[in-house]
């Protein structure tokens, strides 16, 4: 009986499938049309994704008022200062004016931004009000200050009057030391008072100090007078282990700290001085208690061992330090009140120096603690500093945006720049009328300009330029695009060759 089979022969192709599926010599996925369709689909996806890529990678770059910034930099701020000399002697007033003009010409940098105006009157208070500085001659034995009045003895020489006026109106010299000592302006400061025991394990340790009364007596009067310029927050702490980063120099009956040691006296690695998480700048005031085995600890003025009469020193733009060698400590470990009072008297002097409060000229007495002359001089200094700082910051923003083409400039940055320019213009308008208003506008302008400069969106590209972008993305996209480009070129050349061959075959007889 003949055998039958239900399976078809392998060599017999199925009528429902293309022949290329059964021919191993020509797989279906190597067909020219299918290969070109695959390559075209890749390029289609890429081209369709270009708008999405453009939208997601594009940056907002609004125009900044560069012209107004440049125009503003060409005009310097001048704060007028009116001085009324009381008396009918016109020639004497003219001599004072000549001496004052000579002072300004000899040190123009010191008087930069200050425009003094001198005039005479028989009654300065009645003719000018309390916003004008007045010079009076009274039967006093010395020079004294009462509010904005300056009292001289009769027959005081014009040169002496001008010298005192210069020291009160522009007490800041043009030297670099004074500029580096004073802290930069900030609307808020934290005052950190720290009592540091070098080594409590050595015994004779100070555990407490009564600072509430001394804050009221020495620090609060200063902060109240400076309340129009700054806000202050006070904090205090006591530490029982604050070792020095260097060994003091042994002397005959004491231990000494050389001038070189003072530069590294603050041991930031082991002293925990800041206890708050605020971003406000901190002014540190440290009472350092040496260990019992290193007392007395003194400051040396030179390498030869000359002992300084002072036990306090200032760290520029950082704070002040007082080294105290207690002679007696109560059984409870509390520092005597008179010792704390002496320390805070030094802290108050350091506090005023750091903030830029100038001392009164020698021989000039004031009944109140911080006179109006000192406060006005500090306000003028801060106003000029803020105005210059705002202009420099705005110019830096414009320069950075021009240099970095892909730096984003959002609406928040543009608005801050425009608001800072408006505040600077308001400051110039207020300068002839009110020094307090001019200072307030300058502080606003500085805050807005700084906020625009440190905008997170701008800082991101400031530290990630275009060269870094190319270095990151080129290896990623090159490995994917090069095969596609080569495949597309190869298929294009094959297509042109096929068309050329077809044209030749068609033209052949």
UniProtKB/TrEMBL annotation:
Protein name: GPI transamidase component PIG-S
Keyword annotations from UniProtKB, A to Z: Endoplasmic reticulum, Glycoprotein, GPI-anchor biosynthesis, Membrane, Transmembrane, Transmembrane helix
BP terms from Gene Ontology: attachment of GPI anchor to protein; GPI anchor biosynthetic process
Composition skew (Low complexity), residue ranges: 1-11
Pathway of action: Glycolipid biosynthesis; glycosylphosphatidylinositol-anchor biosynthesis
GO CC entries: GPI-anchor transamidase complex
PANTHER family: GPI TRANSAMIDASE COMPONENT PIG-S (PTHR21072:SF13)
Family: Belongs to the PIGS family.
Record-linked Pfam families: PIG-S
Membrane topology: Multi-pass membrane protein
């Amino acid at each position: 009986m003949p055998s039958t089979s239900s399976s078809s022969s392998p060599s017999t192709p199925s009528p429902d499938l293309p022949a290329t599926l059964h021919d191993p010599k020509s797989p279906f996925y190597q067909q020219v049309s299918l290969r070109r369709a695959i390559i075209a689909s890749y390029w289609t996806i890429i081209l369709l994704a270009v708008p999405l890529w453009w939208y997601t990678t594009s940056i907002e770059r609004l125009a900044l008022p560069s012209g107004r910034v440049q125009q503003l930099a060409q005009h310097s701020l001048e704060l007028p200062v009116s001085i009324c000399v009381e008396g009918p002697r016109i020639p004497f007033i003219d001599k004072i004016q000549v001496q004052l003009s000579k002072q300004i010409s000899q040190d123009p940098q010191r008087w930069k931004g200050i425009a003094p105006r001198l005039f005479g009157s028989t009654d300065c208070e009645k003719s000018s009000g309390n916003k004008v500085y007045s010079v009076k001659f009274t039967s006093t034995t010395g020079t004294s200050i009462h509010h904005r009045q300056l009292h001289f003895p009769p027959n005081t020489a014009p040169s002496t009057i001008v010298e005192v006026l210069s020291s009160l109106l522009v007490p800041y010299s043009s030297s670099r030391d004074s500029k580096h000592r004073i802290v930069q302006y900030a609307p808020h400061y934290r005052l950190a008072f720290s009592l540091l025991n070098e080594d409590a394990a050595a015994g004779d340790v100070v555990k407490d100090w009564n600072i509430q009364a001394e804050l009221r007596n020495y620090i609060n009067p200063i902060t109240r007078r400076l309340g129009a310029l700054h806000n202050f927050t006070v904090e205090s702490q006591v530490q029982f282990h604050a070792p020095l980063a260097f060994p003091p120099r042994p002397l005959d009956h004491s231990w000494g700290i050389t001038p070189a040691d003072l530069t590294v006296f603050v041991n930031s690695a082991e002293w925990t001085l800041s206890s708050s998480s605020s971003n406000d700048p901190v002014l540190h005031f440290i009472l350092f208690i040496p260990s019992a085995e290193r007392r007395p600890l003194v400051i040396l003025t030179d390498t030869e061992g000359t002992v300084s009469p002072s036990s306090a020193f200032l760290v520029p733009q950082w704070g002040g330090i007082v080294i105290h060698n207690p002679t007696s400590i109560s059984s409870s470990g509390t520092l005597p009140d008179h010792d704390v009072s002496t320390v805070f008297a030094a802290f108050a002097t350091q506090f005023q120096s750091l903030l830029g409060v100038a001392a009164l000229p020698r021989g000039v007495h004031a009944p109140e603690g911080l006179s109006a002359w000192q406060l006005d001089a500090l306000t003028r200094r801060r106003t000029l500093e803020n105005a210059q700082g705002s202009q420099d910051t705005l110019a830096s923003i414009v320069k950075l945006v021009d240099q970095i083409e892909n730096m984003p400039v959002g609406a928040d940055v543009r608005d801050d720049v425009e608001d800072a320019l408006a505040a600077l213009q308001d400051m110039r308008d207020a300068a002839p009328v009110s020094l307090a208003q001019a200072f307030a506008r300058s502080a606003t302008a500085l805050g807005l300009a700084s906020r625009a400069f440190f905008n997170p969106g701008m800082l991101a590209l400031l530290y990630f330029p275009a060269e870094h972008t190319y270095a990151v993305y080129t290896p990623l996209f090159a490995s994917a695009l090069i095969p596609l480009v080569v495949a597309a070129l190869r298929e294009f050349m094959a297509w042109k060759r096929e068309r050329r061959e077809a044209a030749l075959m068609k033209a052949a007889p």
